[in-house]
Design a protein that fits this description.
Elements: E1 6-9, H1 13-24, E2 29-33, H2 45-48, E3 53-54, H3 58-63, H4 73-78, H5 81-89, E4 95-97, E5 102-105, H6 110-123, E6 127-130, E7 134-140, E8 145-151, E9 155-157, E10 160-163, H7 178-185, E11 194-196, E12 200-201, H8 205-208, E13 216-225, E14 231-241, E15 245-247, H9 249-265, E16 270-275, H10 282-291, H11 297-302, H12 307-317, H13 330-341, E17 343-347, E18 349-350, E19 358-360, E20 368-369, E21 374-375, E22 381-383, H14 397-419
This protein binds flavin-adenine dinucleotide (FAD).
Flavin-adenine dinucleotide binds near residues 41, 44 and 357.
Length: about 425
């Protein structure tokens, strides 16, 4: 099909959904994918089980997309998590809900989701050409409209082209940021890129000497602070000390905020604190310790903290080894509990964008119509998925954003192409 109504570039999460919706709306659709297999990133999500969506209420959902989630209101009015759930369930894919609203296929296999999307594309007679990278999107600059695309093998013309080529994170899945160039060729601007959902790097002494390496903390509250000590964001989840810094769910969620803070403030380091025992207040901890004043500090802390961290904190506040709690003077006791409630960390950056799960930054949203996902600058050009300046936490938020922008862009691209 050299003259389809709609061309979708990228057979990933958003592109497959876009193609299906364009097909559902009567368009003849061509999907071009550079890999030989579709949905390579999608099948990595949720630890290979595919975190297909998240059914938390709309406001909570938007809060979990710190990178411009509010832009999605109009899209979600048209296609939201419930529509994603219905989409798969009506096509025979049974889903289950896990913690924090995360939805997975009952099969626990991401391939179930990918196969469903592929079958649905067949149902709408969508032509899929895999293993054929797009090299150029062709524009008629005089009329500011789309002409088609040029691949490594052929030229295809269409009135509508959807850029679903993903971000820059995890390039081995095929998302190498090619689409940004085509967006720029159309006159679009890009916001600055930064890594999100990525481990953080630190020169803290206990990272450098690897004394805490491998220690994981369950359900701790990690805060990112600005230079005045004000909390930018906090997340209560698990975390882990690594040989280069910090990782684990709480850290990954904080990472985009850290990178933005470092960029915007021009500071060299960001300060973080960990509340190591968030479910017991400072006053309550002091009271509990006082009730056990005959015991060694070591034994009191052991109830809550891993041994190495326990030892390090006592050393940091100046408690002699094997001291009984009653032997520790009042100000040191206070320093101890302060440190337990706000254990300080510093970070100087993160692993690179390529190692993150999600790309921060992308095609400027001011230049996209939120109700249709159409370019405001180039007629017939549409966007969906991670290529645009939207990033969420893992947990089904990005996938929902990709499916939803995919469905909406597909529908509107079809209407545009068939009516012009
Ligand atoms: C390991 C991992 C785990 C994740 N877990 C979660 C999670 O649990 N929850 C969550 O919400 N999000 C998660 N994400 C993020 C989520 O998967 C992505 O945000 C989402 O898949 C993006 O969809 P997309 O369609 O924009 O891009 P992609 O799915 O990356 O698709 C883009 C496609 O375009 C193709 N392409 C690129 N350039 C060209 C070209 N020149 N020609 C033709 N085709 C091209 C690529 O090969 C690719 O197939 C995870 C990401 C990773 C890497």
């Amino acid at each position: 099909m050299n003259h389809p109504d709609v061309i979708v570039i990228g057979g990933g999460t958003s592109g497959m959904m876009a193609a299906i919706h364009a097909g559902m709306n009567g368009a003849r659709v061509l999907l071009l994918e550079k890999n030989y297999k579709l949905g390579r990133k999608l099948i990595l999500t949720g630890g290979g089980r595919c975190n297909v969506t998240n059914r938390s209420p709309r406001e909570v959902f938007i809060d979990h997309i710190p990178g411009n989630g509010k832009f999605l209101y109009s899209v979600l009015e048209q296609f939201d998590s419930q529509d994603i759930i219905d989409f798969f369930q009506t096509r025979g894919v049974r889903l289950k809900e896990e913690d924090h609203g995360r939805m997975f296929p009952i099969s626990d296999s991401a391939r179930t989701i990918r196969d469903c999307l592929i079958n649905e594309m067949k149902h709408y007679a969508i032509e899929v050409i895999a293993g054929e990278p797009v090299e150029e999107v062709l524009y008629n600059q005089e009329t500011a409209s789309v002409r088609g695309v040029q691949t490594s093998k052929a030229t295809y013309t269409a009135k509508a082209v959807i850029l679903a080529s993903g971000g820059k994170a995890y390039p081995r899945t095929g998302s190498t940021g090619d689409g940004y160039r085509w967006a720029k060729d159309a006159g679009h601007s890009l916001t600055d890129f930064y890594a999100t959902e990525v481990p953080l790097l630190s020169n803290d002494s206990f990272v450098q000497d690897k004394s805490l390496q491998g220690i994981s903390l369950r359900d701790v509250n990690v805060k990112v602070l600005d230079k005045k000590g004000k909390t930018i964001v906090s997340h209560q989840m698990d975390m882990i000390f690594t040989h280069f810094g910090y990782s684990g769910p709480a850290i990954l969620r904080c990472s985009g905020h850290v990178n933005l803070y470092l960029k915007e403030s021009q500071e060299k380091i960001a300060n973080l604190t960990i509340d190591l025992i968030p479910y017991i207040s400072y006053e309550e901890l002091k009271k509990l310790a006082e009730e056990q004043r005959e015991k060694q500090v070591d034994n009191i802390l052991r109830q809550w903290l891993p041994d190495k961290l326990n030892g390090l904190i006592q050393k940091q506040v100046g408690i002699q080894e094997k001291s009984a709690y009653k032997q520790v003077n009042h100000s040191i006791q206070e320093a101890l509990w302060k440190r337990v409630k706000a254990f300080p960390l510093t970070v100087y950056g993160s692993q690179p964008l390529e190692k993150g799960f999600v790309t921060g930054g992308g095609v400027n949203l001011k230049e996209i119509t939120p109700q249709t996902m159409a370019s405001k600058l180039m007629k017939g050009l549409y966007f969906c998925g991670e290529i645009i300046d939207i990033n969420g936490y893992t947990g089904g938020y990005n996938i929902t954003a990709a499916f939803a922008t995919g469905a909406v862009s597909g529908q509107h691209a079809a209407w545009f192409s068939l009516s012009s």
